[in-house]
Amino acid sequence: MKLGLHVARFTYPGGAPTLADDLRSIVTAGEAAGYDRISVMDHVWQIHVNGPPEQEMLEPYTALGYMAALTSRVQLLTLVTGVVYRPPGLLAKMVTTLDVLSQGRAMLGIGAAWNEQESLGLALPFPPISERFERLEETLQICLQMWSADDGPYDGRHYQLARTLNSPQSRQKPHPPILIGGGGERKTLRLVAQYAQACNLFATPELPRKLDVLRNHCHAIGRNYDDIEKTVMTALDPGVDGSKVDTLIEQLRTYAELGVTHVHGWVPHCAEITPLEVLGEKVIPAVADL
Q1: DSSP string, 132-149
Q2: pLDDT one-digit tens code per residue, 121-180
Q3: Using 50, 70 and 90 to split pLDDT, how confident is the model at 45?
Q4: Distance in angstroms (rounded) separating the CA atoms of residues 139 and 84
Q5: Which of 198, 193, 227 is nearest to 213 (CA)?
Q6: Residue 43: CB partners within 8 Å, gap ≥ 6?
Q7: Peptide bond between residue 168 and the one before it cis (omega within 30 degrees of 0)
Q8: How are the residues of the chain apportioned to helix, strand and coil, as percentages rounded to the nearest 5?
C-alpha cells in the first residue's frame, strides 16, 4: 500500500504573505517523507467540512504547477476536478501541460462536481446532476481522444470540438492515468469500469459494497477488475507524538484486505511538518508491503 498527501487547507498562521513558503515546506516534506502522490481539491472556496468559505483556497491547477516545480518524484492530481468548471478541451490541455512540465507525473482526477454554493457565487456552470454526468462521460471521451493520434472532430450532445489537436502530447503513454472520484453505484462506478485506471472512494462502512458494485460493472463490460487501482480517501492522523500510529496502521490494513492499494489522506496540522515526518518514519514503511 502507498499513501498520498491530500492538501485540503491553505489556512496557515502567516496568512497569504507566507502561504507560498508554507506550501513549499509541506510539499517538499511530503515528498521527502515518502508519500507517493500529492493532491489538492478542485474548489475555489473552502468547503464546509474544513472551514468557512472565506478561508484561503487556491485554484488547483495553478497550485499543482507550483508543486511540480518543487518536486521530482510524486504524482500530482486533483481529488477531484469538477467536470463542469472547465471546457473539456482546455482541461485535457491543462493536464497535459502538468504532465509535460512535471516530466510525466500528472493524473487526471475527475468527478461530476457537487458544490452549488461556490458555483453560483462565481458564476461557474452547474447544470442538474443528470447533465453533469452526461458531461462527465463526454469529457472523458474528449480527453482520451486528445491523448490519442486522432485529432479529428468530436460531436457530442454537450460538447462539439472542431479539432482535438493536442501538442505537445503527454509524457505518459498512452496518457496520464484517469482517476474518477465518487461512489455512485449506477453512474460513477460504471464510468470507472469503462474509462478509468483508478477509482477513489470514501472510507465508510459501505466501502466493501462499493467495490462489489465496481466488480459487477467490470464483469458486465468485460473489463478486468484487477486492472483498476482502488484508492480511498480518509484522514491520516498520527496523533500527538505518534500516539495514533498503531491504530492508523491497523485501519490501513483493513483497507488493504479489501484490495485497496492507495490511501489519500489529509494530515491534521500538516503545516507543522512533524506529523508528515512521523507518518513517513512510522507508517509509510509499515504499510508498504500490505
Answers
A1: HHHHHHHHHHHHHHHTSS
A2: 999 999 999 999 999 999 999 999 999 999 999 999 999 999 999 999 999 999 999 999
A3: very high
A4: 9
A5: 193
A6: 57, 60, 82, 115, 118
A7: yes
A8: 45, 15, 40
